[in-house]
Inverse folding.
């Protein structure tokens, strides 16, 4: 129909041109117009269907999987048909380089994980699974599982060990602190009730003895509260490294003088051995003083009477400055050394309480060293004494206005 209309239009155009006496050029123009109309009105042939895209090769799928999961820092696996199809570097480090292609029950050796992954839970079941002991006896992992569109499973492992350890430490800390405070408090209350009795309280010698014990127990509670508050302050500042230049040699001499004049029966046993050529350390002077008092105090409490306690400074490895406190006491058995800096840990609880220890001294020392970005080392052996070594970073040397190095005293 459209072609017929185009022909009629062309004939009408030619007739009009003929009647008007148009020349050959006009006739040519009319012919071109007719052809153009025919082409425009003619139906277009249908376009051939697009060729189907080939399905991605398995190797390409695996490569895409690896690119995606390698960008995740936590261990991530992709499983299919009960086997591990892909695993990122974190997963291979945790479970082994050989896990790709293995049965998922062999790759993740945990009953709860195997049950969840083999039974193919519903996609709506997004409950995390707690895995205890995966990769280590005290480790705790949370396993999250998600179904992928192609029928495979994404397994995401999140390390919860640090959070669990912190929570356990908090619970133990509260329990230990409560116990340490309850013991002297019970003694004080007991003696108060005794003194309230007219017969017992009327005896002067008994009253003085009870009051002395109450005083000692109250001072013990006071020391414990002070140590707890000190530990809390140090922990609150642990992410702010101190930048003040401290003359460690001058600080050692100052602490030595305070201990010597403190009336301790063993204060005369303290000796110092200082390297005067050492640079200043970068630190908090008050906290370093507390560190020294704790270390020297421990050495005096647990060292043998009449044996020296030596406090020394020397050049350490690299640019570090070494501070050491050495005694010739009874020493410490190897099994106790890893736990000495735990809060309220005591090698001999009875003796520690008898000499007035709170069980927090070395915990405070450890946190001070950590805040100063230093290192703490304790070497000891039974009947050979103990050496506590602290490595501290040097203070940066400021430049004066003329560009020369300048250091001020501490």
């Amino acid at each position: 129909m459209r072609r017929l209309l185009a022909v009629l239009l062309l004939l009408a155009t030619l007739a009009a041109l003929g009647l008007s006496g148009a020349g050959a050029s006009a006739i040519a123009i009319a012919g071109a117009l007719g052809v153009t109309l025919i082409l425009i009105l003619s139906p277009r042939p249908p376009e051939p269907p697009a060729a189907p895209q080939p399905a991605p090769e398995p190797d390409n799928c695996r490569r895409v999987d690896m690119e995606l999961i390698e960008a995740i820092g936590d261990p991530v696996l992709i499983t299919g048909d009960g086997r591990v199809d892909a695993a990122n570097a974190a997963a291979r480090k945790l479970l082994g380089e050989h896990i790709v292609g293995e049965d998922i029950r062999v790759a993740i050796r945990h009953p709860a994980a195997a049950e969840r992954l083999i039974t193919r839970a519903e996609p709506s079941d997004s409950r995390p699974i707690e895995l205890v002991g995966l990769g280590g006896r005290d480790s705790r992992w949370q396993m999250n599982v998600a179904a992928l569109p192609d029928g495979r499973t994404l397994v995401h492992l999140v390390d919860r060990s640090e959070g669990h350890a912190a929570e356990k430490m908090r619970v133990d800390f509260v329990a230990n602190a409560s116990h340490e405070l309850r013991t002297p408090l019970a003694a004080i209350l007991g003696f108060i009730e005794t003194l309230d009795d007219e017969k017992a309280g009327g005896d002067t010698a008994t009253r003085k003895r009870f009051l002395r014990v109450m005083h000692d127990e109250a001072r013990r509670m006071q020391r414990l509260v002070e140590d707890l508050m000190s530990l809390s302050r140090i922990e609150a500042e642990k992410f702010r490294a101190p930048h003040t230049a401290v003359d460690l040699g001058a600080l050692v001499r100052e602490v030595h003088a305070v201990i010597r004049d403190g009336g301790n029966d063993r204060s005369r046993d303290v000796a110092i051995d200082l390297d005067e050529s050492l640079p200043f350390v970068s630190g908090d002077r008050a906290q370093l003083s507390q560190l020294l008092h704790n270390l020297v105090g421990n050495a005096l409490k647990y060292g043998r009477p009449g044996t020296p306690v030596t406090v020394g400074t020397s050049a350490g490895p690299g640019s570090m400055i070494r501070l050491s406190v050495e005694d010739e006491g009874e020493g410490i058995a190897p099994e106790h050394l890893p736990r000495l800096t735990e809060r309220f840990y005591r090698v001999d609880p009875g003796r520690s309480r008898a000499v007035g220890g709170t069980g927090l001294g070395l915990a405070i020392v450890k946190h001070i060293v950590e805040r100063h970005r230093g290192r703490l080392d304790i070497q000891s052996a039974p009947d050979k004494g103990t050496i506590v070594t602290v490595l501290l970073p040097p203070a940066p040397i400021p430049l004066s206005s003329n560009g020369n190095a300048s250091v001020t005293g501490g």
In short: DSSP finds 13 helices and twelve strands in the chain. The radius of gyration is 42 Å.
